Amino acid sequence: MESKVEHAVDQLKSGGVRMTPQRYAILQYLIESYTHPTADDIFRALSPQFPSLSVATVYNNLKVFVDTGLVRELKYGDDSSRFDADMSDHYHVTCTKCGTIVDFDHPPVLEVERAASSSTGFTVIGHRLEIYGTCPACKGMHS
Question: PANTHER family recorded for this chain (predicted)?
């Protein structure tokens, strides 16, 4: 059974992307992480292992992964994009205090897309549902 990382590597190679040890490590970190890390998070986690790694290298590799459809960039208002290697249909709940993003499985809300399309005449290509609240850790600090 092929691992998610091996599958992603095959996808990159078939797209003509050369695999470097740094690129492999970034990809593996993303796939094994459920925290939706920022480029800085990834840099901090991997720099002990790769002393020559720079934040720019992390950003450039993340862009390659996004462009090849392996990783989703989550832009939520602030400057620091977060990255998600889970490309399945799912939503996110974001803590307004600490910025934690948690996956939330729910059937896609396709009727909203259909309603938008029929009332505007637009050809709808997708939507983003953002849910905000206070995570259990932050809630515990203020109760």
Answer: PEROXIDE-RESPONSIVE REPRESSOR PERR (PTHR33202:SF8), ZINC UPTAKE REGULATION PROTEIN (PTHR33202)
120's tokens = 């505007």
Architecture of the domain defined by 4-84: Orthogonal Bundle (1.10)
* Fold of the domain built from segment(s) 91-141: Dna Ligase; domain 1 (3.30.1490)
* Alpha carbons 91 and 106: distance in angstroms, whole number: 7
Encode pLDDT of 101-136 as tens digits.
Answer: 888 888 878 888 999 999 999 998 888 777 889 999
Q: Say if CB 60 and CB 54 are below 8 A apart.
A: no
Q: H/E element holding 6?
A: helix 4-14
CB 13 within 8 A of CB 68: no
Q: What is the pTM of this model?
A: 0.73
